[in-house]
Write a structure and sequence with these properties.
With about 170 residues, this protein is α+β, with helices and mostly antiparallel strands. Helices cover about 15% and strands about 30% of the residues. The strands form two sheets. Strands 1, 2, 3, 6 and 7 form a five-stranded antiparallel sheet that branches. Strand 4 and strand 5 form a beta hairpin. It is elongated and about 80 Å long.
């Protein structure tokens, strides 16, 4: 019985080795990864500063352990949060507790990035703006526009903390 088990193990190992070493099989033939996909198994940010401008903070791994600059509750009960990633050198805003048609605009000394609550699924989750480059001292501003409220936008501004100087030893 032991000899039969050993034979099966050797046979299975031989087949696996033969499949790996088949002639004409070149791993490069598998084709490149799409340019929009982050590197496999990457745990670090995929962009920095201006390279993050207009991109998704979660997809590019900037949303891991960000700093919350401020949180604001709107008149309709929605929440707005300004977030910053020092690793990415970028900021974004997110909102929740929203209704379909609500809008969130983010500005950091450049173009405005807008996120819209398109449907009930969006309203039941966090909705994020795209990122904007934001270094130490940058002013980050978000304006929430309710689809149901007759009033104007509700805006909140926060500043990214200045860079810390190294502590003396």
């Amino acid at each position: 019985m032991t000899a039969l088990a050993a034979a099966y193990v050797l046979l299975a190992g031989g087949i696996a080795l033969a499949l790996l070493l088949l002639p004409g099989r070149d791993p490069a033939d598998d084709g490149p990864l799409p340019a929009s996909a982050p590197a496999p198994y990457s745990t670090g940010p995929q962009c920095r500063g201006a390279a993050c401008e207009g991109l998704d903070p979660l997809r590019l791994i900037c949303g891991i352990d960000p700093e919350t600059l401020t949180t604001y509750r709107t008149a309709t009960g929605a929440h707005v949060e300004l977030r910053h990633s020092a690793k990415c050198g970028a900021a974004w805003a997110r909102t929740w507790g929203t209704s379909t048609g609500d809008r969130l605009d983010l500005t950091v000394a450049g173009p405005t990035h807008t996120a819209r609550v398109r449907n009930a699924d969006d309203a039941a989750a966090y909705v994020y703006t795209a990122m904007a480059a934001a270094g130490p001292g940058s002013a980050v501003r978000a304006c929430f526009r309710s689809a149901s409220a007759a009033g104007g936008p509700e805006c909140v501004t926060a500043r990214v903390a200045p860079a810390r100087s190294p502590s003396p030893r």
